[in-house]
Structure prediction request, 201 residues.
Amino acid sequence: MITLFHRPKTRSSRFIFLLEELGAPYELKEVTIRSSDGSGAIDPDNPHPHGKVPAIRDNDTGEIIYESPAIALYLTDKFPKAGLGPTVGQKGRGAYLSWLVYYGSVLEPAFISKFLNTPVPRGTAGWVVVEEAMEHVIGALSKTPYLLGDTFSAVDILYGTTFAMFGQSPLLPKSPVIDGYIKRIVERPAYARAQAKEGAQ
Ligand SMILES: N[C@@H](CCC(=O)N[C@@H](CS)C(=O)NCC(=O)O)C(=O)O
Prediction:
């Protein structure tokens, strides 16, 4: 049994989607978090080191996992039969790890730099500007429907729900490739089930 420490309409929501896709046994533990408007507070019941969401607890081992790419990898490794991420030794494992880590180390920092209007001087940061990052993503999705090719995987949950959340925001470069990708992701039955379980805010 997995416990997902969750706050509705945050980065933890996509892990309800992943857990639904995996068919994994899970429970939601709704916690409070600090919001950007100054309201809210860290929940003492949340084991995340900074009181953020998502975090999960694997109740088989007692282990706590945090950071979205780590949680995605942990869950797809733990529930391999669902085929939502190549396991060690399987073809595509390298691409899977690369897209997972690229999400947290390049794509999110790129979006946040743009949102904060603090452009990154070339060559100094560990990431690139959002236009360059999105060129890479769009290049991959122009060739195949999903980031790992023809097969949907947990990386598509991270990327697809992020792009869906941006909607018409100027942060996300306009692209029919991305529009089609978002549609493929949010049309999945597990997405609708996750939305229904999401909880109100
Ligand atoms: N790098 C983390 C980011 C987690 C994160 O910042 N979550 C937000 C909600 S979307 C949060 O918990 N904010 C509360 C806070 O920063 O204290 C991940 O991807 O898991």
User: Anything to note?
Assistant: The longest strand covers residues 2-6. The domain at 2-84 is CATH 3.40.30.10 (Glutaredoxin).
